[in-house]
Amino acid sequence: MTQQSEKVFQSDIVIAGAGITGVSLARELSRYDVSVIVLERAEDVAEGATKANSGIVHAGYDAKPGTAKAKYNVLGAAMFPALCAELSVPYRKCGALVVGFDDNDRQTLEDLLRRGVTNGVKNLRLLNREEALAAEPSLNPEIVCALDVPESAIVSPYELAYAMADDAALNGVRFHFDQEINSVSAAAGSGWQLATARGDVFRCRVFINCAGASGAALHNMISDQPLQMTHRRGQYYLLDRAPYQPFTRTVFQCPSAMGKGVLVSQSVHGNLLLGPNAEDIDDPLDTATTAEGLASVLARAQRTWPALSTRSNITNFSGVRAHLSTDDFQIGPVSGAPGAFEAIGIESPGLSSAPAVAVDLAASVASFLSLRKKGNLVPPRRPKKPFHDMTDEERAEAVQNDPAYGNIVCRCEVVTEAEIREAIRRPVGARSIDGVKRRTRAGMGRCQGGFCSPRVAQIIAEETGVCLQSVTKCGGDSLLLVDTVESFLKGGAGND
Ligand SMILES: Cc1cc2nc3c(=O)[nH]c(=O)nc-3n(C[C@H](O)[C@H](O)[C@H](O)COP(=O)(O)OP(=O)(O)OC[C@H]3O[C@@H](n4cnc5c(N)ncnc54)[C@H](O)[C@@H]3O)c2cc1C
Q1: DSSP H helical segments within 92-245, as ranges?
Q2: CA 20 to 30 Å from 220, out of 24, 155, 242, 386?
Q3: Which residues line ligand 1 (CB under 6 A)?
Q4: Would you call 58 a catalytic residue per the annotation?
Q5: Could you give the CA distance from residue 235 to residue 212 in angstroms, rounded to a whole number?
Q6: Model confidence over 276-306: pLDDT tens digits?
Q7: pTM, rounded to two decimals
Q8: What is the pLDDT of residues 462-487, one digit of tens each?
């Protein structure tokens, strides 16, 4: 077997993980005069929990007062409106209701109200049955009360992560994908040396662990305080976009020790999301869905919304929560490892907290390295309005300026060739069919890419200069094509 020759890379800082925590931090550090590399195991940004969650910007009523979760949730949520406006990411403050079905639930909701007030959440109030049903008439009439949370919002988690990664890259951060860190050790003298599964070596002065479900594994390679992490999977139904929505708010049931409770929520694009359940699993990469898991989601969602039908279900998915035995985020310097920092155990409300975690962690790293802020920053990329949302006049003008707007590639979501090419050309562009799907919504609709995937693959091949057979659905060995007809007929690989 031939051994690929090892490459050695040097930077001031290496961040492990391009989830929302890692990219928020990378973007924050790109404001300083320092070299930053992000190493990501997967082939794209947001391939861990960041692509598979409820997309709620929680207001902050659930976390125990005094915890890092409570602090960063409330601080982070307050940053979202300006952040999403700056990065042109869809965000909507739709509010939430947490519904109760009996006296125990009423007690829980009263506790949540007190917690929320202590955490600094505004405008919380308890509604009686009639008030709750007047607010959301499709609710189960068996509810007895509800907590009204007007500050709760929805966001597209992966679109936010892509926008943050683009902004970080525009300001000098380098992203290396398909690079799984499999060892971290102190370098001779000072700093850190990381070895990747591909055989490359990365040397840095500061190492920051934002590796999500693998956070404890990397932590335990370097810390004198080992950690235990539980991997807790949550499964979902995703229903097609529909003109009629049962609720204007996100509707939760009461949270438990395992999670925030099953919700029924709109997405920012008008799909309906049902889930998640909570089940502990052994393999942090096991994002399968199961008949039992989905059945339990459905039963609980039907309790919130008795008229629920899954006729318009278009896909199911799951995400894995990274739960530490401390039941809190662990953020800051790594114990016993000078020059190493971490943001791990970032389960819910990790999406809502990420921008605030990044500000604090970047400040700690900047102080450790005595960094200065840069004078000039490259402004964020200004994406064009999606063709789907344009008026007829805007569409006509777009096609006139670029005929590729005249080719509709995804019929379900009305996504054009021009938009797909642009998604691949972004600073941290799509390289797979799923990467295009999450950036443009091509393949997100009712047919789930049945019609458009071959055309998307062709455009990826043209734009990135790879052959069509090596285009993947989502990196690794998720190839779509095994061979060409020509080579098959000549007795090529497909003839084996
Ligand atoms: C079911 C579910 C629902 C949720 N709902 C919400 C919600 O509504 N609101 C909210 O605020 N939060 C929610 N969360 C929590 C939120 O999704 C997470 O807190 C957040 O996405 C964590 O981001 P992260 O960047 O820390 O981890 P991840 O997104 O998992 O990113 C970690 C990255 O590290 C990479 N990586 C791992 N190991 C290595 C290695 N050895 N080398 C290189 N790279 C590596 C992974 O590939 C991954 O891309 C939910 C979570 C789940 C699972």
Answers
A1: 103-119, 129-135, 157-170, 215-222
A2: 24
A3: 16-22, 39-42, 47-50, 53-56, 58, 180-181, 210-214, 234, 276, 319-321, 346-352
A4: yes
A5: 18
A6: 999 999 999 999 999 999 999 999 999 999 9
A7: 0.96
A8: 999 999 999 999 999 999 998 888 88
Query: What confidence score (pLDDT) does residue 4 get?
Result: 58
Q: Where are the domains of the chain?
A: 92-153+229-322, 387-495
Q: Which of 54, 324, 341 to mutate to test the pocket of ligand 1 (most atoms within 8 A of CB)?
A: 54
* Ligand 1 centroid distance, CA of 312 (Å): 28
Q: Does domain 387-495 have CATH number 1.10.10.1100?
A: yes
- Residue 130, classified by CB atoms within 10 Å of its CB into exposed (0-12), middle (13-18) or buried (19+), is exposed
Average pLDDT of 100-118? 96
* Residue 192 to residues 79, 188, 200, 210, Cα–Cα distance (Å): 32, 8, 14, 15
374 token code pair? 């840069």
Q: Residue 451 Cα, ligand 1 centroid: separation in angstroms?
A: 30
Question: Taking 90 as the threshold, does the pLDDT of residue 246 lie above it?
Answer: yes
Is 145's pLDDT higher than 50?
yes
Q: Do strands 340-344 and 201-209 pair parallel, antiparallel, or not at all (unpaired)? A: parallel
Going by DSSP bridges, is the β-strand pair 8-16/36-39 parallel, antiparallel, or unpaired?
Answer: parallel
What is the 232 CA–ligand 1 centroid distance (Å)?
A: 12
Of these residues, 58, 219, 231, 323, which one is catalytic?
58
Which residue from 252, 265, 351, 352 has its CB within 8 A of the most atoms of ligand 1, so it is best to mutate? 351
Closest CA to 112 of 74, 158, 60, 152: 60
**In the predicted model, what is the mean pLDDT of the chain?**
95
- Whether the Cβ atoms of residue 23 and residue 161 lie closer than 8 Å to each other: yes
Counting from 1 in the atom list of ligand 1, the atom nearest the Cα of 180 is 42
User: Which of 27-41, 115-129, 250-264, 428-442 comes out lowest in average pLDDT?
Assistant: 250-264
> What's the CATH fold of domain 92-153+229-322?
D-Amino Acid Oxidase; Chain A, domain 2 (3.30.9)
